[in-house]
Design goal:
By secondary structure, this protein is of the alpha+beta class. It has six helices and five strands. Helices cover about 45% and strands about 20% of the residues. It has a five-stranded antiparallel β-sheet. Strand 4 and strand 5 form a beta hairpin. The protein is globular and about 45 Å long. It starts with a helix and ends with a strand. About 25% of the residues are buried.
Amino acid sequence: MKKKKLLLFCMLALSTLTICFVSCSDDDREIATPAVEESHTYTAQIIEEKLLLIMNDTTGEYKDGGYIIYSAEDNELFLMSELTYSIGEMFNRFLQGETIDTTVTTVSVPLKAPKGNGWKKAGTCKSNSLEALNLSRKIASKIPKGRSFEIHAEANGDGTYTVWYRII
């Protein structure tokens, strides 16, 4: 019975991730490599753009916040909702052989205030462009060139967002 539930969960997770990746436009996923050497300013602009997409979301997909994930190896940037990231994390833990709880409550509860595994609090900002740019610059200055990173923006009840980052 547990094996059937686990198999069903894996199929659901793969289906959800496939739908998410297929429905994303290329504008939200990839970073075009500039002809000149990549600078912290360029990285800050990309981070700011994606943070503003999360903060100014009109579709409701990022109402609780979201994740910006950059893979240096593939030179790709992914923008994910809380739910999509949570499902991906559970699937990754499953692939690594960890025991996971497959109840619906685990899937529907977004990850808040990430701790451990290198997460660092960058700060809090409103969705106005100047605050987001300043926070983006701060994060970009901490990321070594050629390294993958993740950024988590969590919506607070007062219209601000708390932002964390980690270098992978």
